Amino acid sequence: MKSLTFIACCFFFYHFHCSAQKLVEVKYEADAKGNYKFTSDNRGYCNYILEVNFSNLQNLRANFRLPFVQDVQPGAKSLFTLTKMDPASPATFRYTYRYVKGCVNPKVNMDYTYLLPVAPGKEVQSQEMDYFLKRYMNEPAPQDWYAISIKMQAGDTVYAARSGTVVEVKDDANLEKTGYTLATADNYIEIYHQDCSFARYQVLKDQNIFVKAGQFIEAGQPIGIVGGEKYVSGPHLRFCVYYTLEKEAFTDYDKADRKSRLAYVPVQFWTKDTGKLKLTSNSKYFSEHPIALVTQGMNRRQIKRWSEKIKVKP
């Protein structure tokens, strides 16, 4: 059986954001005493780890350890204040900042039970995916590397394996050729989970994604139509869950191992016949979406609202 390869999240679709992109912006205001209050504005839909560095800091003291490193939630946040040490002397500073998706000290739930991202009752075949850089460039795989390909039929609906907030959507890949084994520009949905992990659903049909960035979705909710008709392997979904390693988040991108910034979750899926397990290559599984798993993590109000929406009595 020909093995599948998967471009790693950390290599092609994970990157530092610079201030020019304006997803997270750091600002400051000066008061009458010559002190400077720094704030951030996160215009994204997930937490970002923010680092603020000072290359010059004269006659000023921060009320937070520098460099400043902290995760910022969507919206505005107060960061720190620079206070003049000698009010009679001039003060100067120069700073830069950078940010990356994730949380400081993430508490990722490794034991979470994910739904198969296909319709309940459907049988699918899975294939574990190789880490591209290990196979072709002999680079070590990221921590706990795990990505899965799920073989599907043309026109099949893709379902959310876990609830969360959509942070990125690409639905205009328009692949022009055929016979692909790999296409880095293919369509995808990225969903941010409550524990600061991210799920990537990749290989989706152009203009057939049902969700948009900023939208909260429930587990088991339809999110798009599978793509892959132009691949050698036919229609399939590529899926992985990853999170940022805080201690490696701001290593030098040009010199450090790209793999060091991310870690992966060895996802355990719920299957109808065998219950909770990690999917393996060349195996077939039946999908099932039990209400208890769809509603895991919800409070009573959320369960009631979900039940009313789908007309199921809790």
CATH class of the largest domain: Mainly Beta
Mean pLDDT metric = 86
Structural category: mainly beta
Q: What is the fold named in CATH at topology level of the largest domain?
A: Glucose Permease (Domain IIA)
Taken from the alpha-carbon principal axes, the silhouette is: elongated
Return the domain count: 2
Task: List low-pLDDT spans.
Answer: 1-20, 253-259
Which H/E pattern describes the elements? EHEEEEEEEEEHEEEEEEEEEEEEEHH
How many beta-strand segments? 23
**Corresponding CATH superfamily of the largest domain:** Glucose Permease (Domain IIA)
Number of helices: 4
- Quote the beta fraction: 35-45%
Radius of gyration: 22 Å
Distance between the termini: 45 Å
CATH architectural category of the largest domain: Distorted Sandwich
- Outline the biggest β-sheet: 10 strands, mixed
- Overall helicity: under 10%
